[in-house]
Amino acid sequence: MPTNTLTQIKPFSIIDSTLREGEQFVNAFFTTEQKVQLATLLDEFGVEYLELTNPMASPQSRDDCATIAGLGLKSKILTHTRCHLDDARVAVETGVDGVDVVIGTSSQLRKFSHGRTIDEIIGIAREVIPFLRDSGVEVRFSTEDSLRSSPEDLFRVYEAVDELGVDRVGVADTVGVGSPRQIYDLVSQLRARVKADIEFHGHNDSGCAIANAYCALEAGATHIDTTVLGIGERNGITSLGGLVARLAVVDPQSVRKYNLPLLRELDQTVASMVDIEVPFNNYITGFCAFTHKAGIHAKAVLNDPSTYEALRPEDFGLTRYVHIAHRLTGWNAVRSRAEQLGLTLTDAQCKDLTNRIKTLADAHALTLEQVDLLLRSEHESAVGAAERTSALA
Ligand code: HCA
Ligand code: CU
Question: Residue 76 gets which letter from DSSP?
Fold first, then answer.
């Protein structure tokens, strides 16, 4: 199949966890006002769900959860809790639409975290899930560290909670060890065994978080966890913009439901709240995501941007930039810059200027301002020469 053939992505929802997983990012400290600002912005962007920190974490977390649940946003509000009746009760009292319950199933977590057997886990689920269902909230049950749990244990737990009527089961790659193929296989098997929707939550420790989320969707997952810029515990999870970029190159229609031009504001807002820069290589909103440099690229992009752009900057309210002040530049790009500046130069002049730019750039770094100055002075001397000729005539 040619790689430019678009595939249709099946319906899916984004659960943005910037206000839960994102709060676990080392620099994150969100005030109530900031949480409300982020929740409102994410709602405007159009994510289907927002996941908030466990109200049992602290008194302020509990108040903030109730505040955001009371904002009347279009996004459904979820909170995240341990698989425990005490947590479940408090979660329901905050007025959220749904509760994301999690418990570790890997031998590491069973031994070093909560110390329970698989039978005990199923036993607690039998208390917590019916309570939540009777309270009228959406229920998701996820197995922390799914990728390092034995498949046999995992499926026993998933099938038991499916029987109990959860709305979603969650696969969590808690330490970011899963590969796209592993995620595809695990989610496919799960799809065949449960009726519930399937959520995927993937950490990025080994750089697969976006690819894994995408493969989870291909295998039948219906919900993906993201955070703005991917912030979270350690180096974080699938980023909202990264997932959108991945889906947009495959099926642009699949992300039209979101207010895409808000992505830049979301990334910049979160970056400033947690005191980091938006990374240069960030999907869509990195400063050079739509910058073209080499002369060959620039020429083709000026003819038709799709030659070197899989994503259209205008879909995200952004513009492309052709960088010309360097030794790899080409005369088509230089001519285009002259046109942008409203300068009339012949092709021969543009070619000559290109050679001069290359020679200068070989000696030292150039700025666009310096190149513009060259173009302008060439233009002025050409105009001056033309005026002198006509004065003589
Ligand atoms: C964590 C827990 C979690 C939970 C994911 C989920 C994970 O490490 O704090 O609820 O599905 O990565 O396992 O974020
Ligand atoms: Cu996590």
Answer: E
